Structure to design on (551 residues):
């Protein structure tokens, strides 16, 4: 098999196909299109599509052997039935009045995410000796996608709608087997797939942390109270550190005790990532919470470049004056300009944005107005606006010097970087940092779309197993979105929420003809978006009514 490019006459787009060569009965060489990957315009969209095609070609070449352990649940049997070619002929019905719908299944998650799960080889986490636990893990991952935010007990109750019979006790026993080795193997498989999709090399790695709260206020050595990014300081939590590529694809994660400071998470997280993949020369991008001399030295010792947010207001007055008095600013359009300077032996890139400056000015005026109102009413306490107050001889007044100094920061934002000026301009550096929103988007997907918290487990091994299930589901969702948007040349990209919504509407009714005793599977009408999502994993959305069995 090989990847072929076909130039179209009616458009600039180039079609990408996976083709298999063979010889017909007369010995003549022929080619058969195994899979049409999509089309994209020349440039980066086409390169991304070609990389995805090469990953798919290798997978198809390695997946010629049939599955040794076919699933035993009803949904999987129906999925396999829908994939088999059946003769397209009328199906006789004895009496339409005798038709009864026995159950309605949501097959979209099984047919798409189940296929992608198998393509990535997540079953390798378990091996042949733990095939039952492996099937339960697969079902738990699909349930997390189909019914996010629900407990494992609720998943067990809802499983019948998906054509799966799962008891909560079996789910818990499976979770107890998700040990450290299996979690590392899971992340290794995801890294391997992401590197393949990105052409074998990851150039930029984004890292950030968030907190996951529990439905409890009882802490232990792992679940502890700390600085809550969920706005729930009364609840215990754990800290989640997430790695992503520049394209928003997951590379790995680490869990820490709930009271772990952001700055303490980077070094152990990097060590875990290094063990899973050969990073080569990469650029780490992080927020201000990652900034510490120790962390920067760790990155430099390992040969990694970095871009991290600078806390300009926390710098010494002398260093701040150097920023304010910097005279060489380069306009980059849209009312923005960048300044490149060296402070204390490190490169500092500062950006000024006119739109942001106007907002900072309005926010300060509002803060001063509210502060003066509080002072006039004799309310004690300065709240978050205390930097504008001056206390002398017991009298409280507005500190005009603090206000004037604050004005100098209007519209300014800075980043520290190890990147060399000769190879990376100031605008390039901010281009790296500007992509940090992708990991924030990843956290939103995990917290809201997939609703990984609040967590309903109490022991550390169950919490770590829960996070492994959620990470596997998150990886499937992100990789599917990347494939879909890549295969369709960037046309009509779909969000994670749209993908889940479309697949949730792919249903099939199991109908019994009481007159003849035969059962039929009647699918819901498919949409163009559903067909495009199916095509991203090489599966066709079937619309044919099928004969299942006879009573």
């Amino acid at each position: 098999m090989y990847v072929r490019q076909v130039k179209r006459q009616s458009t600039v787009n180039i079609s990408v196909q996976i083709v298999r060569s063979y010889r017909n009965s007369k010995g003549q060489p022929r080619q058969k299109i195994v899979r049409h990957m999509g089309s994209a315009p020349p440039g980066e969209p086409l390169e991304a599509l070609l990389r995805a095609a090469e990953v798919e070609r290798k997978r198809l070449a390695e997946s010629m052997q049939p599955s040794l352990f076919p699933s035993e649940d009803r949904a999987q049997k129906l999925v396999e039935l829908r994939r088999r070619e059946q003769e397209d002929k009328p199906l006789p019905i004895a009496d339409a009045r005798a038709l009864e719908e026995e159950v309605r299944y949501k097959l979209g998650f099984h047919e798409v995410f189940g296929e992608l799960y198998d393509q990535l080889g997540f079953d390798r986490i378990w091996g042949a000796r733990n095939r039952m636990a492996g099937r339960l893990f697969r079902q738990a991952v699909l349930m997390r996608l189909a019914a996010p935010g629900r407990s494992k007990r609720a998943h067990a109750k809802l499983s019948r709608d998906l054509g799966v019979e799962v008891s909560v006790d079996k789910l818990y026993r499976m979770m107890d087997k998700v040990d450290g080795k299996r979690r590392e193997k899971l992340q290794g498989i995801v890294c391997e797939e992401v590197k393949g999709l990105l052409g074998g090399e990851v150039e930029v790695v984004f890292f950030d942390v968030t907190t996951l709260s529990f439905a409890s206020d009882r802490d232990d050595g792992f679940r502890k109270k700390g600085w809550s990014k969920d706005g729930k300081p009364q609840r215990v939590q754990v800290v989640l550190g997430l790695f992503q590529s520049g394209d928003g694809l997951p590379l790995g994660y680490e869990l820490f005790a709930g009271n772990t400071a952001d700055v303490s998470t980077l070094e152990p997280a990097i060590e875990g990532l290094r063990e899973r993949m050969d990073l080569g020369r990469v650029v780490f991008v992080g927020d201000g919470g990652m900034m510490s001399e120790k962390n920067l030295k760790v990155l430099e010792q390992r040969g990694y470049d970095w871009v991290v947010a600078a806390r300009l207001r926390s710098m010494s007055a002398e260093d701040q004056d150097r920023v304010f008095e910097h005279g060489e600013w380069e306009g980059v359009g849209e009312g923005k300009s960048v300044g490149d300077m060296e402070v204390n032996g490190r490169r500092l890139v500062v950006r000024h944005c006119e739109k942001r400056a106007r907002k900072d000015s309005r926010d300060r005026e509002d803060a001063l107005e509210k502060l003066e109102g509080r002072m006039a009413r004799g309310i004690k306490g300065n709240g978050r606006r205390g930097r504008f107050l001056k206390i002398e001889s017991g009298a409280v007044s507005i500190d005009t010097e603090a206000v004037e100094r604050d004005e100098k920061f209007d519209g300014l934002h800075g980043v520290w970087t190890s990147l060399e000026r000769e190879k990376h301009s100031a605008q390039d550096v901010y281009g790296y940092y500007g992509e940090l929103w992708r990991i924030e988007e990843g956290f939103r997907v995990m917290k809201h779309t997939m609703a990984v918290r609040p967590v309903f487990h109490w022991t550390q091994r169950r919490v770590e197993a829960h996070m492994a299930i959620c990470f596997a589901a998150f990886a499937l969702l992100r990789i599917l979105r990347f494939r879909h948007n890549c295969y369709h040349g960037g046309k009509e990209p779909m969000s994670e929420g749209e993908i889940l919504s479309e697949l949730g509407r792919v249903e099939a009714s199991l109908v019994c003809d009481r007159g003849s005793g035969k059962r039929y599977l009647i699918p819901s009408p498919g949409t163009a978006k559903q067909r495009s999502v199916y095509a991203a994993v090489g599966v066709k959305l079937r619309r044919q009514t099928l004969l299942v069995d006879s009573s």
About this structure: Residues 64-72 have pLDDT under 50 and may be disordered.
